[in-house]
Specification:
By secondary structure, this protein is mainly α. 75% of the residues lie in helices and 2% in strands. It has helices spanning 7-30, 37-62, 65-95, 103-131, 135-151, 155-173, 197-221, 227-239, 241-248, 258-279, 300-337; strands at residues 186-189, 192-195. It has a two-stranded antiparallel ribbon with strand order 1-2. The chain starts with 6 loop residues before the first helix and ends with a helix.
C-alpha cells in the first residue's frame, strides 16, 4: 500500500456515512412502503453515484490513483457478491412470510447489524494480516474453494437451512408469537408480552450476511490492505443492497450465469492472494523461508479490469440466454396453436 489516508478524511467519511444510514433508517421507519421500480432505481443510482464521488474524494485526499482504484475494485467486488446475497434474502422473506410493506425495514436493520459484525471481522483480518503474512495462503485457498462452491452450488438452499437452525435455537429460549404486529418487535398475546417473528427475521438477515462476509472480506483484503477501504467498500455495497433487492427481486432468476462470474472473480483474487503470499513468504518449508522471486505481482488495475469484464460477461450471457428461452417458448406456443 503506497499511500496514506489522512485521519481527518477517515473520520469525516465515516461520520457522513453513519448520518446517511441513520437518515435512511428514519425515513423507512416513518414511512414504511413498497418502493416502486422507479424509486428503487433512483436510490440505486444515488448510492452508485455516491460511491464514485467517494472514490474521487479519496483520490483527492491521498493524491494516489491506486487508493481510488483499490476502493472501486473492492466496491465492485463487494457489490457483485452482495447481488448473490439477494437470492438468499428472497428465500428468507418468503420463508418468514414478511409483509412486503415492511421488507425495507427488515433489510435496513439487517444491514446495520451486518455492518457492525463486519467491522469486527475487518479489524480482526487487518490484525492477522499485519502480524502473520502466511494468512494470505489461507485466505487465498479459502477463496479458491469458495469459487468452486459458487460455480457448482446448491448454496442458497444450504444457507437458508442454516438460518432455519438459528431460528429453531432462538424459539427454544424466547417466547415468539406466530403472527406479525406491523413492524413491532413485541406484541401482546392472551395478555402476555411476547416477541414477534420480526426479531427472527432481523437475526436471520444479519446472520446470513455475516456468513457471506466470511467469503467477501478475505476477497476485499486481496485487493487492498487498508482496513478503512475494506470497511468503506462494505458500507457502500450494503447501503445500495436494500434498493437493489426491490429493483432486481423479480429479475434474479434471469441472472442464471451470474454465479459463474462471481466464482471467477473469487478464484482470481484467491490466486492473487497466494501470489502475494509467495512474494512475501516467511514459511520455512517454502523456498527456505525467503520470498519467491518468480511470484507475479497482479496490479489493482488488472484486478479492476478482471472484475468488470467478469460481471459484464456473466450478466450479458444471462440476458442473452433468457431472451433465447423466451423466443423458443413463444415459438413453441405458436406451433401448439396451429
Amino acid at each position: 500500500m503506497g499511500f496514506i489516508i489522512p485521519a481527518w478524511f477517515e473520520t469525516t467519511a465515516m461520520t457522513v456515512l453513519v448520518l446517511i444510514l441513520a437518515a435512511d433508517l428514519l425515513l423507512i421507519l416513518k414511512r414504511p412502503h413498497i418502493p416502486s421500480m422507479k424509486e428503487a432505481a433512483l436510490w440505486v443510482v444515488f448510492y452508485v453515484t455516491l460511491a464514485l464521488v467517494f472514490a474521487v474524494l479519496l483520490l483527492w485526499a491521498t493524491g494516489s490513483a491506486d487508493a481510488a482504484g483499490e476502493f472501486v475494485a473492492g466496491w465492485l467486488t463487494e457489490y457483485s457478491l452482495s447481488i448473490d446475497n439477494l437470492f438468499v434474502f428472497v428465500l428468507l422473506m418468503a420463508q418468514f412470510s414478511v409483509p412486503r410493506r415492511y421488507q425495507q425495514e427488515v433489510l435496513m436493520v439487517g444491514i446495520i447489524i451486518a455492518l457492525v459484525l463486519r467491522g469486527v471481522f475487518i479489524l480482526l483480518g487487518a490484525a492477522l494480516i499485519e502480524n502473520f503474512s502466511w494468512i494470505f495462503y489461507i485466505f487465498g485457498a479459502f477463496l479458491v474453494y469458495t469459487a468452486w462452491r459458487q460455480a457448482f452450488p446448491g448454496s442458497a438452499e444450504g444457507d437458508a437451512q442454516t438460518e432455519t437452525w438459528v431460528v429453531r435455537v432462538l424459539r427454544r429460549f424466547i417466547d415468539i408469537s406466530d403472527h406479525y404486529d406491523g413492524a413491532k418487535l413485541r406484541t401482546v398475546v392472551d395478555g402476555k408480552k411476547v416477541l414477534t417473528p420480526m426479531l427472527l427475521v432481523f437475526v436471520a438477515i444479519g446472520f446470513t450476511d455475516l456468513i457471506f462476509a466470511i467469503d467477501s472480506i478475505p476477497a476485499i483484503f486481496g485487493i487492498t490492505r487498508s482496513a478503512f477501504i475494506v470497511f468503506a467498500t462494505n458500507v457502500f455495497a450494503l447501503m445500495g443492497l436494500r434498493q437493489l433487492y426491490f429493483l432486481l427481486g423479480g429479475l434474479l432468476d434471469r441472472l442464471r450465469y451470474l454465479h459463474y462470474g462471481i466464482a471467477f472473480i473469487l478464484a482470481f483474487i484467491g490466486v492473487k492472494l497466494v501470489c502475494h503470499a509467495l512474494a512475501v513468504n516467511e514459511l520455512p518449508f517454502i523456498n527456505g523461508g525467503h520470498p519467491v522471486p518468480w511470484a507475479p505481482d497482479i496490479s489493482t488495475w488488472t484486478s479492476l479490469a478482471v472484475i468488470v469484464v467478469s460481471m459484464v460477461v456473466a450478466t450479458g450471457v444471462s440476458v442473452l440466454a433468457s431472451r433465447r428461452e423466451k423466443r423458443l417458448a413463444a415459438s413453441a406456443a405458436e406451433n401448439e396453436d396451429r
